[in-house]
Structures are given as C-alpha cells and as structure tokens.
Amino acid sequence: MIKTYRVEGMTCMHCVHHVKEALLEVKGVSDVKVSLDSKTAVVNSEAEIAFDTIKAAVEEVGYEVLEK
C-alpha cells in the first residue's frame, strides 16, 4: 500500500533524512521516499498504517505531517 503525506517544516536534506529514518522505524513500513521540493513523504507499507501512527513518528522528530 502506498500513501503520500505532506510534511511541513523541512528546510534541508538533514530534515529529509530525519523524516525518512523516523518513518522507516514505523512497524510495517517497507520503503519511504521524502522530497524536500514537494514537501511530501511517500510511504510504502505491507498493510494500512493509521495516520496517527505516521503523524506521531514525524512529530517526534520535529515536523508536522498532514494527510494529502
């Protein structure tokens, strides 16, 4: 399952790395592509993951996530 989220607060490639690493730690996530230009995170998972779980992981590293 592939879902795209909008991520606010990223300003550099270090931000991209932090968001990607946080999302890869979520159980069930198999791949993540984060774009600074489009301010998005594309999450590939084996099954649907609750938005609150994604949101908590991203907020824990200091960024805001919105359902796209």
Summarize the structure.
The protein is built from two helices and four strands, in the order E-H-E-E-H-E. The chain has helices spanning 13-24, 51-60; strands at 2-8, 29-35, 40-45, 64-67. Strands 2-3-1-4 form a four-stranded antiparallel β-sheet.
What can you see in these coordinates?
Helix content is 32%, strand content 35%. It is an alpha+beta fold and 68 residues long. The longest helix has 12 residues. The chain is globular, with a radius of gyration of 10 Å.
What secondary-structure arrangement, pairings included, does this model have?
Layout: E1 2-8, H1 13-24, E2 29-35, E3 40-45, H2 51-60, E4 64-67
- Report the average pLDDT across residues: 96
Q: Any low-confidence stretches, pLDDT <50, length ≥5?
A: none
Count all strands and give the number: 4
Strand residues, percent: 35-45%
CA-based gyration radius: 10 Å
- Order of helical and strand elements: EHEEHE
* Sheet with most strands: strand arrangement: 2-3-1-4
Biggest sheet descriptor: 4 strands, antiparallel
- Give the CA-based shape: globular
How large is the count of helical segments?
2
Distance between the termini: 15 Å
Structural class, judged by helices and strands?
alpha+beta
What features would you highlight for this structure?
68 residues, alpha+beta
